[in-house]
Design a protein that fits this description.
This is Peptidylprolyl isomerase. By secondary structure, this protein is an alpha+beta fold. The chain contains 3 helices and 8 strands, in the order E-E-H-E-E-E-E-E-H-E-H. The protein has helices spanning 37-48, 142-149, 185-190; strands at 16-21, 26-31, 59-61, 65-68, 102-105, 118-121, 134-140, 165-171.
Length: 194
């Protein structure tokens, strides 16, 4: 049997994320470290630290996207650091298509401003391909998110009745993922502030 230490995450089974909403509904996401390795490391690290637990669904656009991962709830929250955008327009090979169920990192108008916020597309949008870090796909429960996206919301996409993520857990199948590589203060200054 090959030692896990001698293999790469690209050869491991894809991690599976289970997201449980406060009402008990569940959806699952498959992560793709071969497309966005540092982003996957970041997501797993945050989930294992329970960072995503009890955060609000911060933004919805009917039949288009659901967004969460903001600890402040105002669109400006992040985990205290930023990571590099792992997408083609930022020099990273990432071929994951942006379609219904694709999970992407949210960012400001500039690259390299990702932290913890992510969104799930509910329809294909090829305009985003190459510009946003796609790192996973919903493999179970997409209708739950489609229904959630159509709940009454303000013009800014804030749900009138708040919905929260209760827990986010990760099945890594016994493999250990590294902490993410974070941007230096100089790199952060070169990016932008939220």
């Amino acid at each position: 049997m090959e030692s896990r230490a001698k293999t790469s995450p690209k050869d491991w089974p894809h991690p599976i994320v289970t997201v449980t909403l406060e009402n008990g509904e569940v959806f699952r996401i498959e992560l793709y470290p071969e497309e966005a390795p540092n982003t996957v490391n970041n997501f797993i690290t945050l989930a294992q630290k329970r960072f995503y637990n009890d955060l609000a669904i911060s933004k919805v656009i009917p039949d288009y996207l659901i967004q969460t991962g903001d600890p402040l709830g105002n669109g400006r929250g992040f985990p205290g650091y930023l990571i590099k955008s792992e997408c083609r327009q930022n020099g990273v090979s990432n071929s994951l298509p942006i379609e219904a169920g694709t999970v992407c990192m949210a960012r400001s108008s500039r690259f390299n401003t990702e932290g913890s916020q992510f969104f799930i597309l509910l329809q294909k949008d090829s305009r985003l391909e190459g510009y946003y870090t796609a790192f996973g796909k919903v493999i179970e429960g997409l209708p739950i998110l489609e229904e959630l996206s159509n709940e009454p919301a303000s013009g800014k996409g804030v749900l009138q009745t708040e919905r929260r993520v209760k827990t986010v857990t990760i099945e890594t199948f016994g493999y250990a993922y590294d902490e993410p590589e974070v941007l230096s203060p100089v790199q952060v200054r070169e990016a932008s502030h939220f």
